[in-house]
Structures are given as C-alpha cells and as structure tokens.
Amino acid sequence: MSKIPIDHLGSEPDGPVVGWIELAEQICIRGRKLHDELSRLVGRWQLSPPQFSLLWVWRLTPGEGWGQNELAAALAVSPAQVSGLVEQLRRKGLLEGRRPAADRRRQLWRLTPDGRDTLEAILADQRHALDRLANQLVDLLDQSTAPTDRRGAA
User: Fold this and answer.
1) Model's pTM, two decimal places?
2) CA 63, 106, 120 angle in degrees (round to 5)?
3) DSSP-assigned beta bridge partners for residue 98
C-alpha cells in the first residue's frame, strides 16, 4: 500500500481537511463546555444531564405519553438506557407510567405535574444562559458553513 503525500489530502493551511478538523475540534470543545454548563444547571435540581434530556424530550410527546422505544429513538440511546432513566425519574416523582387500554402490555410514560414544574423551573432559571450558549453554538456552525474557498478571492 502506498502512502498518499499529505499535501494531496487537502491539508494545506486553508484546505478542506484542516478546515474540517478545526471545525470538529471546535464543536467538541463547545460540546464539552455545554455539557459542563448543563451538568451545573440541572444539578441544582438533583438531575443528571441524561435525566434532563429525558424530561426535555417530553415537550415533543403526545398527550398520552411515549413508550421506552420511542424515547430511546428520540434520545438516540438504547432502550436499556431509557429504562434506567425512566425508573430514576419515576422514583423522583417526575414521571408516571400507565398502560393504555388498547395494549395493556405497553407502558407509556409522561411527566407528572412535578415533572412539568421542574422542567419549567429549570428553563425559567436559565433561559438567558441557555440562549447565550445556544447562540455561541449557532455562530460556530454558521462560521463552518461560510464559504472557505479563498482561491477565487482577489
């Protein structure tokens, strides 16, 4: 197998490989900062970021609630992970389950009034901080989609 010279990979200072790696690194750095901020934020309510994510996804759910498979798909995690999160939040009194009459084998989960109140309190408390962080991420992503081809510029 022959090696491709690095200059043929687009690694010149403003080439596509270097630009992509720089973007990926910046997104990872911002992601870690966002995760740290989210941990601090939801920690005030004795929640972990994954538990908060599960509460957050409920704003999209139909009134009857979602089963664990739908929740797993919405969060891009395994049903086993959702099972643990659901049980933790149920013990905290933030979720409740029920079995629909049409399919008694299935368990649907929805926020309790305390769950809704907790989610609203978190959002109200941190609306400005979350807006600032979200704007930083949007700005970074906007920068990444800006034209980078400098060869045509004169």
Assistant:
1) 0.63
2) 35
3) 108
Closest CA to 93 of 117, 66, 75, 70: 117
pLDDT in tens, 82-127: 999 999 999 999 999 888 777 777 888 888 999 999 999 988 887 7
Q: What angle do CA 59, 61, 62 make, to 5 degrees?
A: 125
Q: Are 13 and 51 in contact (CB under 8 A)?
A: no
Residue 145 tokens, joined? 């989609």
8-43 residues labelled b (16+ CB within 10 A) or e (exposed): eeeeeeeeeeeeeeebeeeeeebeeebeebbeebbe
Long-range contacts of 101-108 (CB under 8 A, 24+ apart): 106/67, 107/67, 107/68, 108/64, 108/65, 108/66, 108/67
Burial of 60 (C-beta count, 10 Å sphere; 0-12/13-18/19+): exposed
Other beta carbons within 10 angstroms of residue 131's beta carbon come to: 10
Q: What φ, ψ does residue 108 adopt, rounded to 5°? A: -105, 140
CATH number attached to the domain at 16-145: 1.10.10.10
Angstrom distance (rounded) from CA 107 to CA 99 = 5
